[in-house]
Design goal:
single chain; about 120 residues; mainly alpha; two-stranded antiparallel sheet; 2 helices; 2 strands; about 80% helix
């Protein structure tokens, strides 16, 4: 396989990895926002007294919900979001490793291309 073709192929793969990384970072940002939002809800729930009413939005209607059930739902959501953050972080780290390897490969191929172009034709 020619160096030019290898370089083009590696470059395309590198761009694909960068696109995947951007998508993962976007997902991570969204998860951070959800985590923050649910932590605020948990703090608000901590200030409730047993006599306070809790409502859940179902479509366009507010429906009464048991306070303990609402607190449990928020805790469950927080656990899920935290586990998703760990999963996405692992994917980001793996993607960054792949990106670095591909970048090094590109530099290596580019160096070989430059050497081949500067070598006198015999």
């Amino acid at each position: 396989m020619s160096l030019e073709f290898r370089f083009q192929s590696a470059s395309t793969e590198y761009q694909k990895i960068q696109t995947e990384l951007a998508s993962l970072v976007e997902n991570r940002t969204r998860l951070d926002a959800q985590l923050s939002e649910n932590e605020m809800v948990k703090k608000e729930f901590a200030q409730l007294t047993p006599s306070n009413a809790v409502y859940k939005l179902v479509g366009p209607v507010l429906v009464p919900q048991d306070q303990n059930e609402a607190k449990t739902n928020v805790e469950t959501r927080l656990e899920f979001i935290r586990s998703e953050i760990k999963r996405v972080d692992a994917q980001i780290n793996e993607g960054e490793d792949r990106s670095e390897k591909k970048k090094n490969e590109l530099v290596e191929i580019q160096t070989k291309l430059q050497q081949a172009q500067s070598a006198p034709n015999s």
